[in-house]
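Subject — a protein and its fold
Encoding — discrete vocabulary of local shapes:
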Amino acid sequence: MKILLTIANAGLETSDFLRSGNIVYDPSLDTAPDEQVTDALVLHGATGLITSWRPGAEMLRRWSQDVAGVKCLSYAAGCAYPPAGAGIVEFRHDGSSLEAIATALGRCERHVALARPVQQLPAPDGAGSREVVLIGAGIVNLITAVCLTEDGFRVTVLDRSPAPGTAPWRAYGCSHGGDDARMFTFTEMDDYHNQDFHGAVPDLFRRPVELGGWLARDPRSLSAEERSWIEEFERVPSWLARTYNEDIFSLSAEAAGEWEHLRRRRPELFEGVVLADGILRVYSDPDHFEAALARHRAIGAVLREQTATELARDHPALARPARDGTLAGGLLVPGFTLNVHKFTGRIIDWLERRGVRFHWDTEVTRVRRDAAGTVTGFDCPVPLPGTAHVVASPGVYGPELLRGTPCEGKIHGVLGGWTRISNRAGRLGNSLKVGRRGHVTEDANVTVGRDADGQEILIVGSGYGYTGAATEPDERALTAIRLGILDTIERLFPDRAGLGASSAAGDNYAFKYCIRPWTATSLGLYHAEVTSGARLFVINGGHNTGGFAQAPAVARAVLASLSGAPHPMHALYHPERFSAFMTDKEPPVPAVPLPLAAGN
């Protein structure tokens, strides 16, 4: 997409707005005759125009006729006088500040994303299409299985790993191989690009973990695909990162409502899982604390603000670090944590009692396609019915499932580490999110829980380590993350008691890690295509740290696909959203009005 930007702002020259190359900046056109502006639009093939004044009707008609594709117009002043022209959507922006320009750019990009055709299957006709096979038994597909079962679908679940709890943790993916802790907050899934208009290109994936970066591999071992993935991460400009962040947060807001509905609908799934409501975010740096406070106020996600003195008073487990200056302050935000292994165990039991079949140690090794690229079948030890829809949520361990789709090569791994300590002495009541800016493990989750014997524990998870298309990290990176987690524990819980051994072998370890599915855009992935049997093959994943948080929203998106209905995730998490915007390929003018994402 090309966008012609005519608003004069000296800050644009030092911002990263123009870095991508698909924004044409010409402030001389802001006061030029309409004919000159039209000539520039046609010359550049621009489908976006951001200007101070609304152009005249004749100019808009010529733009509509001479430039193909969906077109976006944003202006600060002027009155709309219809018709603007086929395929032109209009926005208003507030002035000429960088913030206003960023908002206008974001609205144009989002509109094009929502205009992208999403292949849908018509509403299922007959009982034969009420069957679904789920590939992957992680938390996202398990929540999807619950929703599908409630909706009357016959469900089968396949997973490449053994049944949960029957093998060492290294045999599993993220949900069952990571520790027994997951968290929902409105900002749990986030965007990790530079969002400072004048900030530098982030080099997180080029610096090793032990030097404060995220690279958990020898840089000499990176493949061409992995280098390309890193370069794509670095190409996302700040204004687009903010747009992506808004879209991610809008889907997390949807998930919040879905979690609430699920808890009311199926309270039995949440029994005995150490459910804890309210997340306490604490910060070691005053500036970081203030920035986080402003961010959470902006999305209405602050229940209570707390100074260090108030933290010491209200949370005895944190009294010492609050008083000695380790913590600058905190805020209580909406959200919850639970012990995810206990939770998934209850879900699996609930599903099996309702006839859902699970096949463990069952890997789908290949998606078969004909010469035209249409899916014709799946190589799997368990035959998949030709009448079934197939939904794959592969984590980082299913690249073969992505081959031949727009998702291919887009999911790479970023590891996180875990360790446990006792909660017997301090009796911390709320789970924590810990911010330590500049630290090797600067973001940490501390989840209240219980082990297999009922001992009160805290599960501390932290760290970012890029493993790329591989799933084995460098030992130096693992050591750096382990030591970083231990340092956070020493700072926050200097008076912790020793943790006694559990009778369950899976509880007894000093450090473990899991590999989380990540994308270069920080957006999740959602792809649906029709198979040769007129059924759907759906892929979802790449949710970085937010797979659990957004799981019920993913389930709703899947249900919508199977019903032939739209859902914002279909477009906002389209695997080609970024690449299409960065090129001149435009979606056709839609025949029907388009839904708008939250925030428009």
Notes: The radius of gyration is 25 Å.
